[in-house]
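If you are new to this repository, start here. Below is one unmodified record pulled from the training split, so you can see the exact layout before writing a loader.
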Amino acid sequence: MNRVLILHYHEIWLKGGNKNYFLSRLIVAVKHALADLPVAGPQFTSERLLLRPQMEEAMPKILERLRRVFGLAYVAVAREVPSDPTAIEAAACEMMAEKNPRTFAVRAKIADPRFPMNSMELERALGRQILDHLRARASGVQVKLKEPEVTCWVEMIPGRTFLYADRVEGAGGLPPVTSGRLVALLSGGFDSAVAAYKMMRRGAHVVFAHFYGPPSISRGSSRPVAEEIARTLTPYQFTTRLYLVPFDEVQRQIVAATHESFRVLLYRRMMARIARQIARAERALGLVTGDSVSQVASQTLHNLAALDRGIDLPIYRPLAGDDKTEILKLARAIGTYKISCEPFEDCCPRFMPRSPAIFARPEQLERAEAALDIEALVTLGLEGATVRDFKFENGEVALREAQPRRLQKLLDLRKGIPRASGARPTTGE
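And here is the target side for that same chain:
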């Protein structure tokens, strides 16, 4: 088969002297995504990444995997022909006859100085040949340069020409694991999963922290929902770590010691503090939340500013300006929508106040927390945490329990437990 997949990247072009680094990470990601599939490459030729599928029946699975690789703008499913005008015309007419469009256009890119035509001349000549060929079958076919039904794309490099009419849109963004590590607070709902995805798309490697309470009579635990979201997002970044933090006892102490109007804000502030310590153990550079400004009472600008006070780490809110319609649309696209629709017991609405504060000031939250032993509650949350590691390999997502050494070391430091000089824990990283 003479099929060739042309992997087009976009933002990497803007990286100047760092382009080779991002390109190398993109190639690693493509190889990882397709490791178990019959495909040769990728081969880097004339500023293009080329893949050669070895079996036609594997094409749908190959394209589906490539759609999830961050850094790819689109994938062209192309035919390779010699850079000879007669061969190009014959292949283009055959390809467009298969498409049988009512309107079409030709777009050419020529990167071969030896070819006797420039791009515009080739587009005109090829357009005439295709039009005559198609009108012999249906007289109503027309050339339409703006928004045609089908476009015949021609890309020429020295010695070879690629023709295609099919393009599969990619995920865009930057290649996985090129921007550092972040910890995302994962609720199990629509917003936090989408927020994590958007930061993954910017090259961040996301670790998840999920805070859960006991299940109710009508709703199950949120833990399986969080695990399924982490599993679903793992193929985008290949490995994922999920911290599951029991939060019931922390909530009860907050309820017992503070005014009800500040409860949800204090829950969230405590979650951020615990996530901050997880970020410390994971050497992460910031936190991610699914906040959309003023979507709920705790997400007003005043409350968000009050929540951030005292967290000595950046908090990223990629959904800050998005509305619910935009969030749900992306949740459907990335595969987390149906998971988040499952009924589960979310810990934040528990003991919900009748009238939550919407214009809280940092000083008010600090006074409300005066009766709490903050450090003890943070340690309580970390002590109860369990960890799941997900890994995408050979087309499957595997799960194993983990006990990160750095987390145990952090807990020992918080409890004042000395370590023997040079001693290393025996648990896995």
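Two things worth knowing about this chain: The chain has two domains: 3-169, 181-415. Confidence is low (pLDDT under 50) at residues 421-428.
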